[in-house]
Backbone:
């Protein structure tokens, strides 16, 4: 299993599409910072990532300190840092009064009609909730606004058709529609990540950029496939088809830490997942993540999380709605 799939399997993102909007020009809507929306969207979640998908028409996104970005049908935009933002039919419009977020989220997915009656733009608004450490892993190195167009991907047509179907089902009396819509929100977000990885450009850094790099991506996949293996830099370089110096330099440049430091962090994430999601003894967890003794494991875990694994497990309360967290 590749590194992205393995990470997503361990973490089990929780998401939903919470709003289906029909906006008619002229219109402008102000969205708060994700931290303000998080308690309403997914109570207890450590981090919420907001995304929007344009299904008809087009609009402009304005974010303080960033150039405006124009969106068209098929575009999905992710706010990697959760920034407050404005979306509208033209630049410089004042946001309308609208409804409070709490009111909008009383029933999900909410249908919202807003604007002056001109050209129509349709938007889907969704979120993904995840552990704060995972958010840093996935989003490190991303610009504040990440845009991809799913209509250019093989999955795009299927995704759009499936989302439309699920939205209709969510409003029907048949049970399960909201659950289907939640899973599609996760699939849509994952497809955005996959497309972003494939759209590599010069100067990109971060974990996702590393996955798209031939050398670093091969090393990451090897570490994720066999985290308990006693890796050396030389053996990992052979797996990646590069010299030790090339691997070390490329890994540090893109991911920001050395391969061996990354291996420790990934092992600790796996361990935290096992501690919160199972009753396995510490010795078994230590072995599963590559430590011969629970003493060495406890020492490494404490360096990463600040407390010994047993204390971390006792104090851990899983956020509501998150089946597994790191």
Residues:
């Amino acid at each position: 299993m590749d590194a992205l799939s393995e990470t997503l399997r361990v973490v089990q993102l929780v998401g939903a599409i919470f709003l289906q909007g029909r906006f008619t020009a002229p219109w402008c809507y102000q969205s708060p910072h994700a931290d303000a929306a998080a308690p309403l969207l997914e109570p207890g979640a450590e981090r919420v990532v907001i995304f929007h998908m344009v299904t008809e028409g087009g609009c402009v996104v304005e974010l303080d300190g960033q150039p405006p970005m124009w969106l068209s049908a098929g575009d999905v935009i992710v706010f990697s840092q959760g920034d407050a933002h404005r979306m509208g039919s033209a630049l410089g419009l004042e946001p309308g009064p609208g409804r409070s977020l709490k009111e909008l989220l009383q029933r999900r997915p909410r249908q919202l009609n807003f604007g002056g009656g001109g050209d129509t733009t349709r938007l889907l608004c969704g979120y993904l909730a995840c552990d704060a450490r995972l958010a840093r892993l996935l989003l490190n190195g991303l610009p504040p606004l990440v845009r991809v167009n799913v209509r250019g991907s093989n999955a795009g047509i299927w995704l759009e058709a499936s989302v439309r179907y699920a939205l209709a089902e969510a409003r029907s009396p048949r049970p399960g529609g909201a659950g289907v819509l939640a899973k599609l929100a996760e699939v849509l977000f994952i497809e955005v990540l996959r497309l972003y990885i494939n759209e590599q450009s010069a100067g990109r850094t971060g974990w996702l950029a590393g996955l798209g790099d031939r050398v670093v991506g091969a090393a990451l996949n090897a570490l994720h496939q066999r985290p308990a293996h006693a890796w050396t830099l030389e053996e990992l370089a052979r797996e990646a088809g590069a010299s030790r110096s090339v691997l070390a330099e490329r890994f540090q440049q893109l991911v920001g830490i050395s391969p061996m430091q990354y291996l420790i962090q990934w092992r600790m994430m796996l361990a935290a997942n096992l501690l919160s999601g199972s009753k396995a003894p510490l010795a078994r967890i230590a072995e599963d993540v590559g430590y011969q003794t629970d003493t060495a494991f406890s020492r490494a875990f404490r360096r990463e999380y600040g407390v010994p694994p047993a204390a971390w497990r006792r104090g851990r309360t899983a956020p509501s709605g998150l089946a597994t967290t790191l």
The domain at 207-315 is CATH 1.10.10.60 (Arc Repressor Mutant, subunit A). The beta strands are 14-24, 28-31, 47-56, 58-62, 69-72, 75-79, 85-88, 110-115, 120-130, 145-149. The chain has two domains: 3-198, 207-315. The mean pLDDT is 87.
